[in-house]
Specification:
Elements: E1 3-9, H1 13-24, E2 31-38, E3 41-48, H2 51-57, E4 66-72, E5 87-88, E6 94-99, H3 105-112, H4 125-131, H5 138-148, E7 153-159, E8 162-171, E9 176-180, E10 183-187, E11 199-202, E12 207-212, E13 215-220, E14 231-232, H6 248-254, H7 256-264, E15 268-269, E16 274-275, H8 284-289, E17 292-297, H9 300-316, E18 320-324, H10 325-329, E19 339-345, H11 351-362, E20 366-371, H12 377-381, E21 384-387, H13 400-418, H14 424-445, H15 448-458, E22 463-468, H16 472-487, E23 490-495, E24 513-517, H17 523-535, E25 540-544, H18 553-557, E26 560-563, H19 572-590
Parallel strand pairs: 17-18, 17-19, 19-20, 20-21, 22-23, 22-24, 24-25, 25-26
Antiparallel strand pairs: 1-4, 1-10, 2-3, 2-4, 5-6, 6-7, 7-8, 8-12, 9-10, 9-11, 11-14, 12-13, 15-16
This protein binds 6-O-phosphono-alpha-D-glucopyranose.
6-O-phosphono-alpha-D-glucopyranose binds next to helix 9.
């Protein structure tokens, strides 16, 4: 949540900060601001609303080569001009941007006394006030202040008395340094750095760095020096180009045949009809020792985990549960040696998922990560894992990353299955189906015009239900999630079997129900659920992978049918998921919503 960008060097800093904020806007977009050391004074401009509000407030160039910028997702204080970052101390010597939460803000305000006058309702402003009271150079002043803080932070500070110095610090909120030629940058994620440099350094929790055009130094909270190694980043600029499409979300949906291919690439082993996953750090003997699996994630990552649980359980016959990471970590979970823990996260920075990972590892559990963002905190802290290689996802609602999570689970299920009861012949069939997936997704994408018509037909609905059984249920959950996130149509998912235990009371002629109907043993039962809805006058949209037959009950009962290619347990969620992504996208579009940056949400939730 919240994005930080900082630059010091020879170039004019203003356009660099604005470009960085554009790339970070997905992290939060309720207000933005910048501070620049300009002619020995700190000049700050901030504005509620999106980046264009800030741009329109900046009258003319602000000269200077050192500055900080912030895009906010409000936690303390409403999204107003005053609460936007940067915050300054009363004498305007220091400006700070902060990502995270200061938990002991009341105690710190007490320390500052009654006479302190604040110009915002944020917890962050207190940091600027405390800095003004510290003697010594900026690096040690920041360290002194942070020693008083209980909470989380990614922090960047500028000081009018040290006009080309920036101090940044990290505890719980990501911060990455970018090393340029006679310039240094820092940002909450690589997307804001990759245009300037391919050399980066990840700060770890408890580290503070001083940046100047000549380079950087890093210390820990006990003042000891931390020697950090730079890593080389891949150039991922192409992912930040919408490629002529109206929205990132659309581009990310239609890119999926390619991104799925990237996730699969080099990982299908035809010779032994299994998957090759080099990053797991598990030997064949470890694989057969796994007695249970617990999958942890948040939002769409959790729903991908639920689908993954079904894949693994059905192929490997290992009991698997998927649980919301935040709930898991707070119930003092029992951690077992023979349980494999898997954390799933696109960003690799989601606070609750990271906290769950740390809780498991603290208790001695072995944790794998399914992560998209290379070098992210979760990727660095797990014992092994599978990178999704889906490329950066910019739109807030997850699409291509969600699908690549499913593929990572499919590969793991194949590997675990083949280390147990799945025969080489069945393994080959599963591999053939996985290879077919990009084409199957292309077939679904080709259905866009009819799905768009459906979205238009149902766009006035106040509420919608999504139902499915076993393998169909996580698909229903993600379908409802997509629709509510970006169209704001109230959408809930239920196991189809639960319909009659409550939700049926709400079914009327105005509540469309999307019924997920995989071509599996439960198909007749799911068709009965359609009957129950039709008997109450509810419109039914059938999403099915069953082929059409002459006396087709699905076509006879449903008001509308989305028929996708048949798929097995490993690829079903991906194929059907793409159809529901298109449905949500077109619903949002026809309602005129901001599809890439839906209200109240942020892409990377790095606070609790
Ligand atoms: C936020 C996003 C969701 C995402 C979830 C988990 O809530 O809006 O789209 O599924 O975080 O994110 P992660 O990066 O851990 O996959």
């Amino acid at each position: 949540m919240c994005g930080i960008i900082a630059y010091t060097g020879k170039q004019p800093v203003l356009p660099i900060l604005l470009d960085g904020l554009k790339r970070l806007e997905y992290r939060g977009y309720d207000s933005t601001g910048i501070s620049i050391v300009s002619r020995k004074k700190i000049k700050t401009v901030k504005a509620a609303g999106k980046l264009n509000m800030l741009e329109s407030k900046i009258n003319g160039p602000i000269t200077g080569g050192c500055g900080i910028g912030h895009t906010r997702w409000a936690t303390h204080g409403a999204p107003t001009d005053e609460n936007a970052h940067p915050h300054t101390d009363p004498s305007n010597r220091f400006a700070i941007v902060h990502n995270g939460i200061i938990e002991n803000v009341d105690a710190l305000k007490k320390l500052l006394g009654k006479e302190a006058v604040y110009s915002s309702q944020t917890d962050s402003e207190v940091l600027a006030h405390l800095l003004a009271l510290q003697p010594g150079d900026l690096l040690h002043a920041v360290r002194e202040v942070l020693a008083m803080v209980v909470g989380t932070y990614g922090l960047a500070v500028i000081d009018q008395q040290h006009p080309d110095t920036i101090v940044v610090a990290r505890n719980g909120s990501p911060l990455i340094l970018g090393i340029g030629e006679n310039e240094m940058l820092a940002a909450s994620d690589m997307s804001a750095l990759s245009r300037h440099t391919n050399q980066a350094v990840h700060l770890d929790d408890g580290e503070i760095a001083k940046l100047s055009p000549q380079g950087f130094e890093v210390i820990r909270m006990d003042s000891s020096v931390a020697n950090k190694e730079a890593i080389t980043l891949n150039n991922q600029n192409a992912n930040y180009d919408r490629g002529g499409h109206p929205h990132y979300l659309y581009k990310e949906i239609i890119d999926q045949p390619d991104t799925v291919q990237q996730t699969l690439s080099g990982r299908l082993d035809d010779r032994f009809s299994t998957a090759h996953l080099g990053g797991l750090n598990l030997e064949a003997r470890d694989l057969i020792g796994v007695k249970r699996i617990t999958i942890l994630g948040c939002g769409s990552a959790l729903y991908a985990g639920m689908a993954g649980a079904n894949m693994i359980e059905s192929l490997a016959r290992i009991p698997v549960t998927a649980e919301a990471a935040a709930e898991f970590r707070y119930r003092n979970p029992v951690i077992e040696q023979d349980t494999l823990y898997i954390v799933v996260s696109q960003s690799g920075e989601t606070f609750d998922t990271l906290a769950a990972l740390r809780e498991v590892r603290r208790k001695g559990g072995f944790v794998l990560g399914i992560v998209n963002s290379v070098g992210s905190t979760i990727a660095r802290e797990v014992d092994g894992g599978i990178y999704m290689h889906a490329g950066p996802e910019v739109s807030v609602a997850s699409t291509k990353a969600y699908t690549s999570m499913l593929i990572a689970f499919a590969l793991l299920a194949l590997l675990l299955g083949r280390s147990r009861d799945v025969s080489p012949q069945q393994g080959s069939r599963l591999i053939a189906d996985l290879k077919q997936l990009p084409d199957n997704i292309r077939s679904v994408l080709a259905m866009e015009p009819e799905i768009a018509k459906l979205a238009d037909k149902y766009k006035k609905s106040q509420s919608a239900f999504f139902i499915g059984r076993t393998n169909g249920f996580p698909i229903a959950l993600e379908g409802a999630q997509k629709l509510k996130e970006i169209s704001y149509i109230h959408a809930e998912a239920y196991p189809a079997s639960e319909l009659k235990h409550g939700p049926l009371a709400l079914v009327t002629g105005k509540t469309p129900c999307v019924v997920v109907l995989p071509n599996d043993d439960l198909l007749p039962k799911s068709i009965s659920s359609m009957e129950e809805i039709k008997a109450r006058g509810g419109p039914v949209i059938a999403l099915t992978s069953a082929a059409q037959t002459d006396e087709d009950r699905i076509d006879a009962l449903a008001d509308d049918v989305i028929r996708v290619p048949d798929a097995d347990v490993l690829t079903l969620s991906a194929v059907m998921g793409v159809a529901l992504q298109l449905f949500a996208y077109h619903s949002a579009l026809s309602l005129g919503r901001d599809v890439d940056q839906p209200r109240n949400l942020a892409k990377s939730v790095t606070v609790e």
